[in-house]
Design a protein that fits this description.
By secondary structure, the chain is α/β, with parallel strands linked by helices. It has two domains: 147 residues, HUPs (Rossmann fold), CATH 3.40.50.620; 124 residues, 3-Layer(aba) Sandwich (Rossmann fold). It is globular.
């Protein structure tokens, strides 16, 4: 069962949304929530070309930026705590840390069951190539615990997303199977309408059979409203298109899928998982 959650907060709008989702999850599942405020001073004070005679000015500017970032994170943690108290939620705490966000999250997540991050938070590398920060990509790839990714522009309140149907993308691969089991073991499938989507290159019948077996597992973990959706290769377009299209049709509040997995719903860098990450308006439950 879900007992503890850590949510990364850096002062960005995306991380504030993630904080609201974490609190809502905590209330629904009786889990403790920790707001982890991250100040990345190494990034703020990274070496940059400075004109001759300008080093003293740069140091002063860095210190001001660092103070501003630190103050912003402190304010976010205060607001996070106030929001929790307003809703009568007392099982929370806050912590402010300084350092590389990925390392800080990895260290803190050791004592938690679930990591929640905002998709548009934790930018920390100059000239990043994608809208999704490199740090978020690294957390998804390297974090051994499941991650919920919160999109920057959600459709409604966290409670609405967490009450809406769930779409689980399942192809029988190791990554997809681990995701299915972890979703069930954390108790996230209980009292939810769940649709399991399987795309199979060989036939629709095989896809339906695979999705049905996944539904059987979920029912054993208390999911009473499960539905299998099986699609043949020529019915669905690309795997990412099938996932995004089905989620839109269902009004899914959350998509659960194996992060950067292989087989069926195939993954190479820049492929299925990244397409879903960058285009989904739903919460994403990711595990690998």
């Amino acid at each position: 069962m879900l007992r503890s959650i850590v949510v990364a907060l850096d002062g960005s709008d995306s991380s504030v949304e993630a904080g609201l989702v974490a609190l809502e999850l905590g209330k629904r599942h009786g889990a403790r929530v920790e707001g982890l405020g991250i100040v990345n001073s190494a990034w703020i004070q990274r070496p940059e070309p400075v004109p001759i005679g300008g080093m003293a000015y740069k140091r002063a500017l860095d210190l001001q930026l660092l103070k501003t970032a630190s103050d912003r994170v402190s304010a976010v943690l205060t607001a996070f705590g106030e929001r929790a108290k307003e809703e009568g939620f007392t099982a929370f705490d806050t912590k402010k840390v300084d350092g590389d966000p990925r390392i800080q999250i990895e260290f803190e997540a050791t004592v938690h069951d679930l990591v929640v991050v905002g998709r548009g938070s934790l930018f920390d590398v100059g000239g990043e190539l994608f809208d999704m920060p490199l740090c978020i990509d690294q957390v998804i790839r390297g974090e051994p615990r499941p991650v919920i990714l919160v999109p920057p522009a959600k459709r409604g309140q966290p409670g609405e997303d967490l009450a809406a149907p769930v779409l689980i993308a399942f192809d029988g691969s190791p990554a997809a199977s681990r995701t299915l089991h972890m979703f069930a073991l954390l108790g996230l499938a209980v009292d939810r309408e769940i649709h399991v989507l399987t795309v199979d290159n060989s036939s629709k019948d095989v896809a339906v059979a695979t999705a049905t077996r996944a539904c059987d597992l979920l029912r054993r973990h208390g999911a009473t409203q499960t539905h299998g959706v099986g699609l043949g290769d020529r019915q669905a377009g690309s795997p990412a298109e099938a996932i995004l299209g089905t989620a839109e049709a269902l009004g899914a509040g959350m998509i659960a899928m194996g992060a950067y997995g292989h087989r069926g719903i195939r993954e190479i860098f820049g492929s299925c998982t990244r397409t879903v990450l960058e285009n989904s308006s739903s919460l994403l439950f990711l595990y690998h």
